[in-house]
Amino acid sequence: MSQDNKQAALKWIVELLNRRNIPFAVCGGLAAISYGSTRPLNDIDLFVPAQYFQQAVEAGRAYISKPAQHYCEVSEGWDLEYVQFIYRDVKIEIGSADHMKIYDRSVKEWVPLEVDFAEVSIRKVLGLEVSVLSKQALLDYKAILGREVDLLDIAAIKGNR
């Protein structure tokens, strides 16, 4: 996944959502990178409010690689409805911020994940200014997930205060 393709994919999805006035919050690795993580980017992850999810799905219909539906991915710690697009060889996953759960490895149970779209930060990443989960919200959910990649992101973000 080239840097040019990552930038093009982010630009594509942001423009697609902005043209339709769909609020969003970048999360995952790209959000971590915006706060100082330097690990390689695996994909582009975003949340949209539930009432806009189907609009986002329809807007990117030509690029769907995984249909919009409920997925429970225990190994990744996610239980939510999402769609996956592939644009210029870059995976883009948009999750519906409704009834989301993440797996808390410390207590071995699923817990709700709430996204407050009023608390997003505008951050520059891959050359674009985008809405990103607040630093604290990102750190909190990555701590709950507790995967190796999350712990690396947390250490990088905290080291870059």
Would you give an account of this structure?
The chain is α+β, with helices and mostly antiparallel strands. Strands 1, 2, 3, 4, 5, 6 and 7 form a seven-stranded mixed β-sheet that branches. Strands 8-9 form a two-stranded antiparallel ribbon. It is built from five helices and nine strands, in the order αβαβαβββββββαα. It is globular. The protein has a single domain, classed as Beta Polymerase, domain 2, CATH 3.30.460.40. It is 34% helix and 33% strand. Helix 4 runs antiparallel to helix 5.
Write down the secondary-structure element order.
HEHEHEEEEEEEHH
Spatial separation of the terminal alpha carbons: 29 Å
- Which sheet architecture does the biggest sheet show? 7 strands, mixed
* Tally of individual domains: 1
Structural classification: alpha+beta
Please give the CATH class: Alpha Beta
CATH topology: Beta Polymerase, domain 2
Which tags fit this structure?
161 residues, alpha+beta, Beta Polymerase, domain 2, seven-stranded mixed beta sheet
List the helices and strands and how they pair.
Elements lengths: L2 H17 L5 E3 H7 L9 E5 L4 H7 L4 E10 L4 E10 L2 E7 L4 E4 L4 E4 L8 E5 L2 E5 L2 H11 L2 H12 L2
Parallel strand pairs: 2-5
Antiparallel strand pairs: 1-2, 3-4, 4-5, 4-6, 6-7, 8-9
